[in-house]
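Suppose a classmate hands you a notebook page containing two proteins, each written out with its sequence and a corresponding row of structure tokens. How would you begin to make sense of it? This section walks through that situation. The first entry is reproduced here exactly as it would appear on such a page.
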Amino acid sequence: MPRPIYVGVYWTRPVPWAGFVTLSPDPATAAAQSRTIRYQREIIRRFVRDADGILDHEVALMELAPDRATPESMAELEKTVASVSPAAIFLSVEFSETRGWRPHPFLRKGLPPDRTLALPPEPLLIDGALFDPISHFRQWRAQEKAHIGDKAQHRARVIEALRPVIDESYPKKAVFLNKAGIGTNGGRHWTADNLRKFLAPE
């Protein structure tokens, strides 16, 4: 009897305030960049090993939101589906089972429903330490909330920082803030457009 063939599909979201905005398309490198990717890869590899299967291909994606897939991700999935064995089963970790967190229904639209299997997000030992998705995502949300802080205070800090260049153009103001290391409330770089919207009367 032939061994079953699997394809691992992993995804994560960017964390701009932490400087995590790009992900390598190479799954091994992506796993080193992101603990979430590493966790999914370990879960899926363990499943394939227990099933005496073959992990034929892996895909690592970065999504901007949990409720929609980027065109780039959909194109990558379509390319993968077309290139792997027609008998391959696509594996992913279904984080929405963890108290409703991080669903990705649109990502599933890029995969054949009759050959897609979602694995539960169980705690897993990684390098001798227990990785619990619930605790991990809670911690990141708390850190994000603490980083973003109060929007009114952030707005006041930006306006105060701009005093030396108050009469300059928006592009020059944006460059000034970026050089000063003062980013947006979400940790991104300023552009003329987002700064203009940010400074518009509320």
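The notebook's second entry, a different protein, reads as follows.
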Amino acid sequence: MDRPPISNREWQKVAPIAVILGARLHPDGTASAALLRRVSFGCHLHQRGNVGKILMTGGVTPSGRTEAAEMAAQARRLGIPETDLITESQARTTRENALYTCHLLLHDHRHWSYDHPQTSRTEQGSPPKQNALKPIVVVTDLYHLPRAWLAFRIIGRHSGFKFRFLPCPPPPDSLRRPGYWRSALREIPAFAADLVRCWLVRPPRPSPTPPETR
């Protein structure tokens, strides 16, 4: 795939960070098709200059390996430099993807320290300011996108971030893949449940800025 199938208008936009949501691993710890799709698309955005860094979020699986570790390994194989990779290895649900991602980006300011057109050199490494940065891109499958949107909008409502959501391309033979449609159908009750559960999560907030010393 030479270019992700998104509109020219979307293609011209640049975000400081892309968040790739985890997907299940096989029992032996290898990547599932969904995980590979998401990582491939996120890395494509990086290689085309549309995102500055990539944050992989996904916790431990029954195999003992974390989704984030496997995603990062796949990204390295696709040529993404280590300096542009961030991993969050606690999240086991979409709600936790949103919670731990926002918490990490709010409280570890090292992830903002790179030369991005929206960040001046004197501000690199500083916490993101309200509306100071272009939106954070969230990458997942199309069928998972509504629930990801719900979680990040509700749980990230006090973070000061603006989120944009991009679906990775579905497999070319998705109409003949029962597993793909089973995953899509599972999202219906999961969305209904998260519509309530997301409001029960305490949303992360930016740390107070310490007073300047004279």
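A careful reader of the second entry would note: The first strand starts at residue 15 and ends at 21.
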